[in-house]
Amino acid sequence: MSNVNLGKVIDRIVSKVKGDGEPPAEKPAPEAPPAPEQGPASASPPPKTVYVKTLTLDSLEELDKVGSELETGNIAIIRLTPMLDRDLDDVNRAVRKLKKTVNEIGGDIASLGEDRIIVTPSRVKIWRERGAKRKTAAKEPTEAE
Predict the structure, then answer these.
(1) Structural contact between residues 15 and 40, judged by C-beta atoms closer than 8 angstroms
(2) Distance CA 63, CA 94 (A)
(3) Domain extents in the chain
(4) Exposure pattern of 14-27 as b/e (b: 16+ CB <10 Å)?
(5) Which residues, 6+ apart, have CB-to-CB distance to 64 below 8 Å?
(6) CA 90 to CA 122: how far, in whole Å?
(7) Which architecture characterizes domain 1-18+48-123 according to CATH?
(8) Could you read off the pLDDT of 40-97 as tens digits, one per residue?
């Protein structure tokens, strides 16, 4: 497993699961009607605290923990190294299941380097630089050069 570039493997899995690998086009936010003025008695409660949690995925059984974090509105950064060291097929299954969970709640998923992925709830989207992979691939010299 040491010969495999884990970052490329995870990127490839996330790209396959996401579809074409390109982020969806940004849609302009619809304009909300102006809110009626409210007195201090009807003030909205403060926003709920969102946590960024790091989790290590040792087995497929631990995916429920990630799902519950997303349901509560938290962001999870998941380390896949223990599973990558044992079985790449389990990593594929885990990423597919995470993607399905993320799609069900309207969240987002992306790779963070060689052995980590990030999953977010519906109100959090991951920014992706368009064409970044193409630019770096174009700069790499070929063997003929």
Answers:
(1) no
(2) 7
(3) 1-18+48-123
(4) beebbeeeeeeeee
(5) none
(6) 26
(7) 2-Layer Sandwich (3.30)
(8) 555 666 668 899 999 999 989 999 999 899 999 999 999 999 998 898 899 999 999 9
